[in-house]
Amino acid sequence: MDTKRLNRLNTTPEMLALGTAAYFAILCNLRFWREVLAIVVPSDPRQIAVLVTLPLVLTSLSLLILLPVTFRRTLKPVLAILFFANALALYFMDTYHIYIDRNMLRNALQSDWREITELLDVRMAGYLLLFGILPTILLRLIHLRETPLRESITRRLAIAGGAVVLVAVSVGMLSGQYMFLAREHRELAYLLTPQNYVVATIGLLRGQNPRQDHSARIAIGSDARPGKAWETRTRPLLLVLVVGETARAQAFSLNGYDRQTNPQLGRRAVFSFTDVSSCGTSTAESLPCMFRPFGRRGPDTDDLRQYESLLDVAQRAGLQVTWLDNNSGCKGVCAGVESHQLDNDADLALCSKTGCYDEILVKKLGELLAARPRSSLVVLHQQGSHGPAYFRRYPPEFGQFTPACATDALLGCSREEIRNAYDNTILYTDHVLSRLIDLLDAQQDRYDSAMLYVSDHGESLGENGLYLHGMPYRIAPEAQTHVPMIYWMSSGFIEDQGLSTSCVKATTATTLSHDNLFASVLGLLDIRTRIYQPERDMFAECRGRTLIAGPNAKPPAVSFTGTEG
Q1: Mean pLDDT of the chain
Q2: Residue 155, Cβ neighbours under 10 Å: how many?
Q3: What is the helix (H) or strand (E) element at residue 94, kind and residue range?
Q4: Residue 427 and residue 422: Cα distance in Å, rounded?
Q5: Most buried one in 38, 87, 346, 500, CB count within 10 A?
Q6: Which range, of 288-297, 352-361, 554-563, averages the lowest pLDDT?
Q7: SS3 at position 442
C-alpha cells in the first residue's frame, strides 16, 4: 500500500479540531438529539431557531475543549483517547440509558472487575469499532501541516474568540429558550459527549482527597463513651447492620408489592419502614454519606472521606466493630476497623469464580460470634441485587419467578424477564435476612441482639427506558432512591433498650432517610457523644430512657468543617 497516496488529507491542527468538534456535537450525541427533538414544539419558531443554532453552539463548546491541546504533536493522541472514551460513554448511555456525571464516573471507577465484566457485551465491540477504531484509523491518514508557533497561537485565539462570540450571540438571542432547556431539562447536560465525561473527570480529580493516611482523618465523636445502661447490662449487646445492594423498596412484599418476595420475613416479627430515601443513587455515593452524621446535604462525597465514620465512633466507645464485605469494598468507611473481604472465599457451596452468594456473610458472622462474647457492631455488606447480572445473585432454587433474564445484556431480555430475575434476588435477600435472624435468635442466651437492614440505593428496571442506577440525584426516579429498611430485635434487646414495639410499629410509615442511620445506631448502642442528634434518631421517641443526660451533656451539634460542639 502506498501510504503517500493515502496521506492526501492535509490540514492544520485547528481545522482538524474544528472538524472533530462538529463530529462530536452532531454524530456522537444522537441520544441527546432524540431527547431534544422530543421536547421541541415544531410550531414554535423560537424553538426551531434553537434547533438551528444548537449544533453550532455544541460544536463551539467542543472546540473550546480541544483548542488547548491543538498542537501538531499533541492533538492526534488526545483525539484518539477521546474517540475511545466517547465509544465507551455512548455504549453505556445507549445500552443502559444512564446519565454521566461525577458520581456515575466515581461509581464506575470504584467497581471491581466482576462488576465491570458484567456490564460488557458484544455490542460494545460495535461501539468501539464505529466510534473508536475507525476514527482513529482516519486520524492516521491525516497529515498535519507545520505552522509557526506564533501564527498557531494567534489563529487559535481568533478561533476561540469566534467560538465564544457565536455561543454568546446564539444563546443571547434565544435566552428564554436556552434557559428553559437548562432549567427544566437539566438531564440533557449529562448526555453531551465529550463534555459530560470531561467535566466529570475534572470534578473528580479536583475532589480527590489528598489524605491517604487513614490516621490523618478528621475525628468525629471523639468524646464517645458508653451510656448508663452499660453498667448494668448482663449480656453483651450485638447490633448487626446489613447494608443491602441495589434493593428497591417497591419490590418488597412487606411494603405492599403485588408479588410474594418476602415469604420468610413475613412470618417473623420484623418492622418494615416503608418511606425511606437513600443518600445517593450509587454505592460510592451512599456509603460514605450514610455512615457519617452530616446527611445527604452535607459535604461532597470526596470531602466525606476526610472524616472518620460511625464505625470509628462505635469502636471508640468500646464496641468490637467488624465489617464483612461480599461486595466491592466499603468505600473508605471501614478504614479504621477490622474488615474481611469475602467475595473470594473458598467455600465451594456458596462461592464460584463469579463471586459468592450472600449467605457467606451469615456463615462468617456465625464463626465470629462463636468466639466473641463481647458487645459488637457488625456490618454485613451484601452483593444483594446488583445488576445487570441479576441471575448470578441467587442460587438456582430461588429462581421462583420465570422466565428470568439469564444474561448480562439486559436489552436482550423482555421487561418481564428482567423483572423476574430482579425479584428473584429480592426473594434470596429475604432468605438471607431470615437466616441471619435465626442465627441471632439462637444466640439469645449469649447476646441481646438486633438487626437493621437498609439498602444503599434502588434500581431502575426499564421504567421510562432507564436501567440500573447512578443517575444524578436531582433527576433520579423514585425507583433509584426509595429503599427498603427492615428492623428486628431479640426479646433481650427490647428489654435492654426499653423500646415500645407498638411505638416502633407506629413509626414504620414515617418519612425517613439514610440521614437517620447515624443517630439511630448511636441510640441503639447507647453511645453518648455530642454529635448524637436525637431529632434524627428514629427510635428516640420509642425508647424508655433518655440517651443524652447528666451534668456533662451538651446540645447535639454537627459541624460541616470538622469541629464538634
Answers
A1: 87
A2: 17
A3: helix 75-96
A4: 9
A5: 87
A6: 554-563
A7: coil
User: According to the model, what pLDDT value does residue 243 have?
Assistant: 98
CA–CA dist 120, 500 (Å, integer): 50
* pLDDT number for residue 211: 43
Q: What is the pLDDT of residue 222?
A: 93
Q: Is 51 exposed, middle or buried (0-12, 13-18, 19+ CB in 10 A)?
A: middle
Q: Which parts of 444-520 are beta strand (E)?
A: 448-455, 460-461, 467-468, 482-489, 512-513
* Domains in the chain, CATH or no CATH each: 3-206 (no CATH), 238-344+360-385+422-542 (3.40.720.10)
Closest to 248 measured CA to CA, from 526, 427, 459, 510: 459
Crossing angle for the helix pair 75-96 and 13-27, to the nearest 10 degrees: 0
CA distance 112 to 110: 6
Which residues pair with residue 276 across a beta bridge? 483, 512
Give the pLDDT confidence score for residue 451 in this predicted structure.
98
Residue linked to cell 425479584: 423
The C-alpha atoms of residue 126 and residue 388 are separated, in whole angstroms, by 20
The values of phi and psi at residue 250, to 5°, are -65, -15
Q: How far apart are CA 532 and CA 557, in angstroms?
A: 8
Residue found by looking up cell 439486559 in the block: 410
Contacts with 220 (C-beta within 8 Å, 6 or more apart), sequence order: 292, 293, 307, 308, 309, 312, 313, 531, 564
DSSP 307: B
> CA nearest 245: which of 278, 299, 283?
283
Max Cα separation, the chain?
A: 90
Tell me the pLDDT band of 197, cut-offs 50, 70 and 90. confident
Report the 10 Å Cβ neighbour count for 236.
18
Nearest 10 degrees: Cα torsion 230, 443, 333, 534: -40
Q: Are strands 482-489 and 460-461 parallel, antiparallel or unpaired?
A: unpaired
d(CA 265, CA 254): 8
Nearest residue to 365 (alpha-carbon basis) of 456, 269, 439, 453 = 439
Q: In what order do the strands lie in the sheet with 512-513?
A: 338-341, 320-325, 376-381, 237-244, 448-455, 482-489, 271-277, 512-513
Asked if 389 contacts 533 with a C-beta cutoff of 8 angstroms, the reply is: no
Instruction: Average the pLDDT over each of 6-20, 177-191, 201-215 and give the range with the smallest value.
Output: 201-215
- What single-letter amino acid sits at 160? A
The residues, ordered by sequence, that sit 6+ positions from 45 with a Cβ below 8 Å of its Cβ are: none
Average pLDDT, integer, range 408-430: 94
Please give the single-letter amino acid code of residue 392.
R
CA distance 72 to 444: 73
Q: What is the pLDDT of residues 309-360, one digit of tens each?
A: 999 999 999 999 999 999 988 999 999 899 999 977 778 889 988 889 999 9
More confident residue, 67 or 229: 67
| Extended strands (E) in 490-554 | 512-513, 527-528
Query: Could you read off the pLDDT of 141-182 as tens digits, one per residue?
Result: 998 888 787 888 888 889 999 999 999 998 888 887 887 787
